[in-house]
Amino acid sequence: MLTRRNFILSMGVLAGSSAAAACPLPAMDGGEHAVMMLNANCGDGQTPNVFEPAILHVNVGDSVTFVPTDAGHNSASKRGMIPEGASPWNGALDERLRVTFDVPGIYGHICLPHYEWGMVGLIVVGNDLSNLNAVKKIRHPGAARKTFRALLKELEVA
Ligand SMILES: [Cu+2]
């Protein structure tokens, strides 16, 4: 029987477990990767609206699933920030979207509602940085400029 007290207890357990479970990346098999869409950074719990990981390295032919761990986000490839011949994607809000990467190179992607607030990420396929200069030329509004610059710098020194 669900008494009021039990109801409150079970709500507490649910809230606690979902907060703890939000951070570790979902387990994926070889060739399958996940990027979580989060309201706050796992590490510091502060930086709002992030892709986790912000930079993901995958092999040619691998797939990435954008996971709507938190609500209100999407992933869309940024025009001019994907390799020539690659297909763009544009996930709906809260959509769990799986994208397969057959063309090597750097892919920049953004969350449309939080683009200006710096919710952006990079996926590098096949360790290929040959479109780096093209990617760096793209202009961004607000905090996206700073975040993309920081992520691209991380790529260059890695
Ligand atoms: Cu977002």
From TrEMBL:
GO CC, alphabetical: periplasmic space
Location relative to the cell: Periplasm
Gene Ontology MF terms in the entry: copper ion binding; electron transfer activity
Cofactor(s) required, per the database record: Cu cation
Span of domain Blue (type 1) copper: 50-125
Cofactor note: Binds 1 copper ion per subunit.
Binding positions for Cu cation per the UniProt entry: H73, C111, H114, M119
Keywords on record: Copper, Electron transport, Metal-binding, Periplasm, Signal, Transport
Gene3D superfamilies xrefs: Cupredoxins - blue copper proteins
Keyword Transport: yes
Protein name as annotated: Pseudoazurin
Protein's organism: Roseibium polysiphoniae
Species classification: Bacteria, Pseudomonadati, Pseudomonadota, Alphaproteobacteria, Hyphomicrobiales
